[in-house]
Amino acid sequence: LSSSSAASDVYKRQVEHKSNIIKQYFKIGWLKYVIISTLLFSIGMATTMGFKNPFQESLGFSISMIGFFWALSRVGISLLLLVNGWFKKNLTFRQLLLIQGITYSLIFLGIGLSPNKWIIAFLIILATMVRWGFGSVTSHFYLEFVQDSKYKVSLLSINSFLGNIVIGGLGLVVGWIVLQSGFQVAFVYAGLALSLTTVLALIILKK
What we know:
The chain is mainly alpha-helical. It is built from ten helices and no strands. It starts with a helix and ends with a helix.
């Protein structure tokens, strides 16, 4: 009986812990920011993670040239990371997400609609820079939201978990679109999805 009672107490504490974490999501007003940032990052990631290099190869770029593009994107990311402090000082999280959303939308639509392979390569470099170049300031905004919570690790872990799930699901969708209609059509759809996410951000995120 004592063993059963102890197990029941443990189960109750686990349920209460999960319930408290969910309450924290809503209490600190973080959930809507998680939804927008996760969608923006996941749509971009799912569209490029497994398809960027094959797409560039299909355009006629060599492996060495694709490697050169990759190196350029890393230089750009490093430069953006250097000015993350300025973005944190001068922008709110809402403004940062809106800038990312608008930039992402234009880049992905440009990739999908451009007839020039060099413009496409340049835009893919920009997309990579935008995706990874704001990592530090985004993490800082996340930490500001959860700094007073005793569930910091759980809240951040759930955020990462949701992101991976969304990326996996969207990756399957993008793969299907590529097989059915080609790489550029997939980027157009991604650009439209990013545009809708940006509009959603305007509506649900407070100024």
